[in-house]
Amino acid sequence: MGRLDTIIMASGLSRRMGGNKLLLPLGESTVVGHFLSRFPYALFQKVIFVYSDREVAAIAGNYPVVLCQNEDPEAGKSHSIQLGLAMSTAEDGIMFAVADQPLLTGRTIQTLVALFYRQGGKKIIVPEVAGRRANPVIFPAACRSEFSQLHGDAGGRQLIVKEPGRVCPVPFTAREEFFDVDTPERYRQLVTQWSGRFQEKL
Question: Quick one: which of 167, 4, 152 has its CA closest to 89?
């Protein structure tokens, strides 16, 4: 569906978790394993997976991704973004996703991609759940230069706040799809959801 790349952010330090959250068990797999198993690769010309942990890379290597090692995760989110962009050849846009959303569905990503093209590939497509912004987000390729100027932990949010007129919010009601894992409490909540009614759907 056009010339669109994805950069999956998977090199965070998981400071609040106390260990790599992507390797936490979930069902018969891991958090990152479930995310990757549900990703709609066919929608993109290239899926770039930015990692720092070799165990995470080993899991990602089972999927059609381009592995991009971040040897300096301490440099912050902007460094991961710029590493991924250096491997992207997309002419239309780039979607940034986070690997700790194991309940995210391919159908939701397809909805975001379709809207990006309906908007002429000029808008920043941002999902919203209960009025709050969520990931993944699609940026026009023209945003590359702005990303190159980011430093430290600055990320796409900075571009969204800076130019609200370019933002196209997309409301979603399925809050659980955008659930991410940042703390031990959030992980416990995820396991509870997985063990309950969501297990049958997945």
Answer: 4
For residue 14 the two structure tokens come to 């998981």
Q: How many domains does the chain have?
A: 1
Token pair for 187: 């992980």
CATH number, position 59: 3.90.550.10
- The domain in which residue 98 lies consists of 4-201
Q: What are the percentages of helix, strand and coil residues in the chain, rounded to 5?
A: 40, 20, 35
This prediction has a pTM of: 0.91
Residue 113's pLDDT is: 97
Distance CA 161, CA 191 (A): 33
Instruction: Report the alpha-carbon distance of residue 50 to residue 138 in Å, rounded.
Output: 17
Chain segment 102-135, per-residue pLDDT in tens: 999 999 999 999 999 999 999 999 999 988 999 9
* DSSP 3-state of 23: helix
Three-state secondary structure call for residue 130? coil
Residue type for position 175: R
Q: What string of H, E and C letters represents the secondary structure of 155-186? A: CHHHHHHHCHHHEEEEEECCHHHHCCCCCHHH
- Using one digit for the tens of pLDDT, what is the confidence trace for 61-93? 999 999 999 998 888 888 899 999 999 999 999
